[in-house]
Amino acid sequence: MILILLVALILFGPNKLPELGRAAGRTLREFKDSVSGKDEKEEKNDTKN
After folding, report:
1. Which of 8, 26, 29, 31 is in the most buried spot, having the most CB atoms within 10 Å?
2. How far apart are CA 21 and CA 23, in angstroms?
3. What is the pLDDT of residues 2-38, one digit of tens each?
């Protein structure tokens, strides 16, 4: 795992890594929500109640 992180650091540089992490997190969250059957409208209704 450390080797993968070092390669990513060398390829993308320290400034791009936080952006890539955020993008990966958003992608995983959207995938998880789509698999669970929730969409954005249901989430907004759930937070209002």
Report:
1. 8
2. 5
3. 998 889 889 988 899 899 889 999 999 999 999 988 6
Positive or negative, the CA dihedral 22, 24, 18, 1 is positive
Nearest alpha-carbon partner for 30 in 49, 22, 5: 22
Instruction: Report DSSP state, residue 16.
Output: T
| DSSP E strands, the chain | none
- Would you tell me how many other CB atoms lie within 10 Å of the CB of residue 33? 14
Which pTM value belongs to this model? 0.54
Chain-centre distance for alpha carbon 34:
14
Domain residue limits at 23: 13-48
Number of domains in the chain: 1
